[in-house]
Amino acid sequence: MNKGFTLIEVLVSLVILSMIAVISSNIVQSSLELERTSSQRLSSASNLNFSSILIRRDIRQIINVPLKDFYGNPMSATLIGNNEDKRIMFNTKIKSISNNSSPIKRVEYVLEDNKFIRRQFFSTNPYDADEFIATFLIEDISQMDIEFMFQRQWYQQWPISPITERQIPTLIKFKFKKNQEAYEWIVEPNIEYVFQN
User: Fold this and answer.
1) Does the reported pTM lie above 0.90?
2) pLDDT tens, 103-114?
3) What angle do CA 21, 22, 28 make, to 5 degrees?
4) Cα angle 116-85-113, degrees, rounded to a multiple of 5
5) How far, in Å, CA of 66 to CA of 124, rounded?
6) For all residues of the chain together, what is the average pLDDT?
7) What is the distance between the alpha carbons of residues 47 and 94, in angstroms, rounded to a whole number?
8) Higher per-residue confidence, 37 vs 136
9) Half-sphere CA count of 151, side-chain side, radius 13 A
10) Residues 71-94: b if buried by 16+ CB within 10 A, e if exposed
């Protein structure tokens, strides 16, 4: 009697092996896809967390001193914000590497091309509008609103009156959508005094 495999046995073995290979490749592919999605979500959450910390730090360390334009002329506020322009600008205290430079810097947050950007100027009263360090905080923003609270009411711009030109809002709210998910950050500037001339 000849020992060996029949053609049918070989074909059945090949079919079984190919089924195992297809199932294994599908499992590996879905595992890789799951790992990639998890990494993207983790990276996005980490980026949002960093952005939130940076915004909160800047706003909580606001210095209530008058802003000046790029020609050195006084502006009519110590903080300027406008929901229509998706922009907020103020002076804040930032730890400096050198003891020779002032720790107070102008900071501007602005939404441009669906990206929320932080601009840090080199002084409180910069003379060149293009001299800043830009940090791209959040990308792919489909909608953003910036609001300012004064006397328990939200406003779309700051200052809202000559009285508030020398004040900082009680709260500042950032509402935005990223990848169809809604976020809302409310920050308390933690400063109560009114700027005195």
Assistant:
1) no
2) 889 999 999 999
3) 85
4) 40
5) 9
6) 88
7) 20
8) 136
9) 6
10) eeeeeebbbbbebeebbbbbbbee
